[in-house]
User: Which sequence fits this backbone?
């Protein structure tokens, strides 16, 4: 069972869920599960594997149930870090442990840099940081191609281009850029344009996430134990390579987790990983 809470801030209403025992009754610190652009619903399976401790999931501002009133539509790690800090304060049980997935891992790195006392252990799973790649310029070009496809033809074309980029193995070479445009029909995606251009993954609204550069000095000075994680199946694709590059920036090697970028997922989005094995590995790392 989970209880849902709304944290009213001047710029957004941040909705978060508390699963399991109350923080005061949990034998270990609360565990925050943070995604972006994925919302709390994607962590249902993973949360179920930690019934012995308080688990907190949330919707980033402007996504899912967290309605923003600041008049903006961009997703900025520093802003999300401020929201996470407010959630930690509302729990009254810091420092917490954090598992951040994808853009959530980026927000969590920003949280540690800005509020180092908030987090005991951070597991940053495949943060998609373009500038951590040795072929950063080519990766930025590939990402722009995906956004261009979305702006030109809508969701199906954009998602097909995203899938092509995300599954490309190794650096983005001339062979990649010579590929024909990805066909949404072959991927089972809609071919008709619904006219919308506000998808947080495919539009420019999340550029600040992939362009984020970690404050290495602040992270090194923080008391937080930071573990950068990479999926065993994704070490050669964009998100895995970005994780390996991020780990190198922090002077460590990426810790290998089971499965792929969504390895913790059950049946939430039809992209299941190995949630039981993933949860075992996460518990092992958190208990360190």
Assistant:
């Amino acid at each position: 069972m989970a209880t849902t809470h709304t944290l009213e801030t001047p710029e957004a209403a941040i909705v978060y869920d508390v699963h399991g025992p109350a923080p005061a009754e949990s034998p270990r610190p609360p565990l925050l599960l943070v995604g972006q652009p994925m919302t709390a619903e994607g962590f249902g399976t993973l949360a179920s594997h930690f019934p012995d401790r308080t688990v907190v999931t949330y919707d980033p501002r402007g996504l899912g149930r967290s309605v923003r009133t600041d008049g903006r539509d961009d997703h900025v790690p520093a802003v999300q870090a401020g929201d996470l800090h407010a959630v930690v304060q509302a729990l009254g049980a810091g420092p917490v442990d954090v598992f951040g997935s994808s853009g959530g891992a980026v927000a969590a790195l920003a949280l540690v840099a800005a509020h180092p006392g908030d987090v005991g252990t951070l597991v940053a799973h495949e943060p998609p940081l373009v500038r951590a790649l040795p072929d950063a310029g080519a990766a930025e070009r590939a990402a722009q191609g995906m956004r261009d496809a979305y702006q030109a033809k809508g969701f199906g074309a954009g998602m097909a281009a995203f899938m092509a980029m995300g599954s490309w193995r190794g650096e983005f070479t001339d062979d990649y850029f010579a590929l024909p445009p990805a066909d949404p029909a072959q991927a089972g995606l809609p071919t008709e344009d619904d006219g919308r251009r506000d998808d947080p993954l495919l539009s420019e609204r999340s550029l600040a996430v992939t362009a984020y550069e970690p404050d290495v000095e602040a992270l090194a000075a923080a008391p937080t134990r930071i573990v950068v994680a990479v999926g065993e199946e994704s070490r050669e694709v964009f998100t895995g390579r970005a994780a390996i590059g991020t780990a190198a920036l922090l002077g460590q090697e990426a810790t290998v987790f089971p499965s792929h970028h969504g390895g913790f997922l059950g049946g939430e989005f039809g992209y299941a990983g190995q949630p039981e094995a993933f949860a075992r590995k996460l518990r092992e790392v958190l208990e360190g």
About this structure: The longest strand covers residues 2-8. The two ends are 27 Å apart (CA to CA).
